[in-house]
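Homework help board

Subject: predicted structure for assignment chain

Our instructor gave us this sequence and asked us to write out the predicted structure in token form, then describe one feature. I got the tokens but I'm not sure how to describe them. Can anyone check?
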Amino acid sequence: MSLNDLLRALDALPAKEREEVTRQALEATKANYFIPNPGPQTEAWFSDADELFYGGGAGGGKTTLLCGLAIERHKDSLIFRRQIPQVDGLEKEVERILGTRDGYNSQVHKWRLPAGNRLQFAGMPNETDKEKYQGRQNDLKGWDEITQFTETQFRYVNAWNRDASGGKCRIVATGNPPTSAQGMWVIKYWAPWLDPSHPNPAAPGELRWFTTVDGEDIEVEGRGPHFVNSEWVEAVSRTFIPSRLEDNPDLMATGYASRLNALPKELRERLRNGAFDVEAEDDPWQVIPTKWVKAAQARWTERPPEDVPMTAVAADVAQGGPDKTQIQSRYDWWYSRFSSYKGSETPDGPTVAGLIIKEMRDRCRVIVDAGGGYGGDTLTQLAHADVDCYGFKGGSGSASRTREGMYGFKNLRSQVVWQFREQLDPDFGSQIALPPDPELTADLCAFRYEIRAGGGGEEIVVLPKEDMKEMLGRSPDKGDTTIMLSASKLGGLKRPKAAQERREQQRHRLQSVTSNASLKARLRGKR
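My token output:
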């Protein structure tokens, strides 16, 4: 029976019985500092999900839910905001609920709560800050404004959501719809509830079960156990419960709705209505507009165009480690989905070269990232196999200029990223079709640029890959692969040394054959 069913049943009781039920409920909760509001907040309070996402609209009681759970339901809670100054709102909410700041140490943001349970607030401004919480066991891990965190921060810290005494553990994330492409991972993580294109949508509050197979989340039936990677594991349950301002009568009575209604349309749709399908407003220094990427993905088809040969394959190589080797092919303006391989599956050059050759058609050109050291061995193997291959080094110089000729480029990476922007520009009739991949969307929309003074005047500088890693919480390998693929026709790309040596050997053999033929001809003439 749902909460609404219970409330309807209560309303249907005779007046005296309803009063008695109400009296008993008040008696049972008189020692509580916090009682959730009827509706979504109560559903979230009693949810059995291991990982709950609660929110959507602004003012739905998200922060209050986190603080109330820490006060009433859990022994040791850790609640995060991305920036440590932002925990001020959490501190004030706990003080409001308790009516005091007794037990709070503001220097370390730790609170000894009245029942003897513990609560700590923490920030995680940098990607590597997640490592500070390795091994920190908490029965409640809370994430306030989850879309401001990276997926890797969320997954890493949650690994220690446990209670040595066997009590109930849970992860609760709260937040509004993402306002940038970098927060889109949340929609993918809770896709059955938030992604309108999901093939099997879930109802609000419905439990779905997930386990991880080869680094990818897979939905399964029930907790299990399930046999995964040669061992029996239990699945983790997730759910999403939407909330809006109307679900928080106290805040609704303050006139807060009028402030939300005054927001610009795009923000109003997100914060007032909790809409997850609104286009994000781009950063003013974002290289590739999100709408252009989405338009290219809308043009994509499952199969490449007929009678168009494969023109190139690009590869971003990971040999071991947490990153993946990404391989993508191109048929002129149509870009394929990615073939992704764990670093452990691509330990050396011959392995990656074999996967690339398997992908190739029509003796097309191959581009391999040679800027990080891993691609060199792959290029050598491809060259020995007589593949038309080139290494891409983003730090190389650039003599090119923007389409209108106003700016130069700091380096080759800046050039090809900006030129891919120009290729996607709808005002110039772009036909490019990109696969609908959320990671690719986030990667391409994470490129940022500056305009600086250079040797030949002002130039475009696309900010370093390290900045993108900090923003995304991972390496933008799919975006890099697509950018390289877009530059496959670029003149001036360098062949690997092994390919140059092979061509030189072929030239010498041809000269030798020609010389021998010429000598034989002269000898025949003397006879």
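Reply (TA_rk): Your tokens look well-formed. For the description, you could write something like this. The chain is about 35% helix and 20% strand. That's the kind of observation they're looking for.
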